[in-house]
Amino acid sequence: MVTRAEEFEELRPLLFSIAYRILGSVSEAEDAVQEAWLRYEGTPTEPRSAKAFLSATVSRIAIDVLRSARVRREEYVGPWFPEPLLADPYQDPQRSAELSDSLSMAALLLLERLTPLERAVFVLREVFAFTFPEVAAAVGRSEAACRQLAVRARRHMDAGRPRFEADRVERTELAGRFLDAFRDGDVDGLTALLAADVQLVGDGGGKAPQWADRFLGVDRVSWVLAELVSLFGGLGARVEPHEVNGQPGAIFRDRDGKVLSTWALDIVDGQVQTIRTVSNPDKLRHVGPVADPLAAFREAYELRRDAD
């Protein structure tokens, strides 16, 4: 006989992946999964399907959490990005394209435009291919209502869906050249890989240095990258190439190996279109020991001033 605990552990990757896409937060998704387990463990009757019960439970928990989180996100200092995810624990070869596309920073930011119910319905139906009866049971609405929610959500998502190059190998290779140029301090090499309308956007949450919410255009972004090359070099920082939310990116660490930030790169038509950085330490604790970004950059500026 398979125990409830064993069933739950087998389903945990799926449950986390559902919750993360609804919430955009690693820590909140982990909490939602744990709460789903407590409810499953405490259910006196045996559910007909553990997958159906747990998927519905974690979805409803995530919807409730998202509703309360909306107020906090409206009050957030500067741009808000999802907590970076380095690897999706749920793998399904038949849904690999949908799973990968829905994990990108761009897609998760599009999901932020949806209502919590639309978001949950879209994730369950379009990403994980739940049937409409299953979706309806999960979110507590009729099948007809879920179909309407799905149509509205799909319309919003299709209108702003990002264009990524299909060839992941080429994207990874270009990202490697970009990060090598950054590591080598080759600003001209960096600039050559940027799209004319490139943008660099950072999520510091008011807890990390940030000159502006957003930099647009190759000249402005090149200037910022040149500054960051100098500052990171002064810190003895390391660039660690790594997929971030299914996209080419990197983890930046200080000389002691503590996390300074993560970068995710949108690559379109053979050029870097968008650079999204997360340096809010509250969003990086699941990645590893986190550096104090304010102290780190203060040190870098002082070292540069002394050198001058």
Automatic annotation (TrEMBL):
Source superkingdom: Bacteria
GO molecular function, one term: sigma factor activity
Keyword annotations from UniProtKB, A to Z: Sigma factor, Transcription, Transcription regulation
RNA polymerase sigma factor 70 region 4 type domain boundaries: 106-157
Pfam family, one: Sigma70_r2
InterPro entries cross-referenced by the UniProt entry: ECF_Sigma-70_Domain, NTF2-like_dom_sf, RNA_pol_sigma-70_dom, RNA_pol_sigma-70_ECF, RNA_pol_sigma70_r2, RNA_pol_sigma70_r4_t2, RNA_pol_sigma_r2, RNA_pol_sigma_r3/r4-like
Recorded family membership: Belongs to the sigma-70 factor family. ECF subfamily.
Name the record gives this protein: RNA polymerase sigma-70 factor (ECF subfamily)
Organism: Kribbella amoyensis
Higher taxonomy: Bacteria, Bacillati, Actinomycetota, Actinomycetes, Propionibacteriales
